[in-house]
Amino acid sequence: MNTELMDVESAVTKDKLVEDLRVVVADAEELLRATAGQAGDKIAAARERIQDSLAHAKVRLAAAEEAIVERTKQAARATDEYVHENPWKAVGIAACVGVIVGMLIGRR
Fold first, then answer.
1. Residues whose CB falls within 8 Å of the CB of residue 51, separated by 6 or more in sequence, listed in order
2. pLDDT in tens, 10-31
């Protein structure tokens, strides 16, 4: 069960990373559009390098998203199996989590 929790936390961290990468890609694309009218060899070369980097980043981003979705599905399947194999233990764990969350909310 501890491994499953680590997988879920890892997926959440990866989700945040993917979202951050999306923002960077969008910002870079906006920068490319804003500098489209600029002339010069150095600017043209820089724009070409940025476009190549963006293309590679988009491919890696898509692969990362696929990996996250697959890991999330695996974690969900493992959790489902655990709950079906240990229903009363799962109910006990859920009740304990509920009590802890209730106590934390009650403190405020």
1. 32
2. 666 777 777 777 788 787 877 7
